Amino acid sequence: MRAREFVERFEQFAPKSWAEPWDVPGLQLGDLNAPVHKILVTLDVRPETVQEAIDVGADFIFAHHPAMFHPAKTLDLSVPQNQMYATILAHHITVYAAHTNLDSAPGGMNDWLATALDLQNCEGLVPSNGQGATPTVTMGRVGELAQPTTVRAFAEHCKTVFGLKGLRLISHTPAASVKRVAVLGGSGSEFYPAALAHHADVYVTGDVSYHPAHDMLAAGLSVIDPGHHIESICQPQLTQLFTTWAGENNWDVAIQATTLNTDPFTFL
């Protein structure tokens, strides 16, 4: 199988055109005409995941977060990021990323998160700004719990679901009832007004900073920040999806998820 064949199949599922205008999904490094024998699926492309790809013999890395989100201004190899690019190219590894197009895709990132949280009757949170996106292409999900709980209890549930040692709770009313939940993977602070507009009792998203947290509290919204790394849910989900496609298309390719944890934060 050539990299191009795999990418064309993936872009039927989550076209690059669905990505937000500021995003840089797609081919990051390498050659789409290169043969692919083994795919490593990862949330992040970091030096340790590149080394893992080399160690397991992967010639294609599929990532959620773009490896080259910020353009390189020099190719000084004393810079670890640049050295990582050089290592990828030296080992003839092709790197492809699906970012906000995977976030918005039906059956993609935010559906996986909503399912993990046991949300029912889900609808989109905010429309995609990608070109050609239809009304069904939306970032985030809003759904209902089977049984009401409290803000604090739901925060504890999030810790269990995502395997977290800690998270941040932003709420004046931790004992308040929760039935309707909004979730948006990654950094979703700016979309909290949409959670309010959808009448969510609590909003689950990552990377909430100080001043937006105050604005959320002032608006009467409880927010759970479990971090950005919960998007690693894509690793087993994509591995299963790609394995299904390989069977359907008779691809002679091995697919595996990274075994590494690339979350940069540790709770003490």
TrEMBL record:
Superkingdom to which the source organism belongs: Bacteria
An example molecular function term from Gene Ontology annotations: metal ion binding
Q: Where does a divalent metal cation 1 bind?
A: 65, 103, 228, 231
Q: Name one GO cellular component term.
A: cytoplasm
- Give binding positions for a divalent metal cation 2: 64
Q: Which residues cross the membrane?
A: none
Q: Which UniProt keywords apply?
A: Metal-binding
Q: Note the Pfam families from the entry.
A: DUF34_NIF3
Q: How does it assemble?
A: Homohexamer.
The text of the family note is: Belongs to the GTP cyclohydrolase I type 2/NIF3 family.
**Protein name per its UniProtKB record:** GTP cyclohydrolase 1 type 2 homolog
Could you tell me which species this protein originates from? Levilactobacillus acidifarinae DSM 19394 = JCM 15949
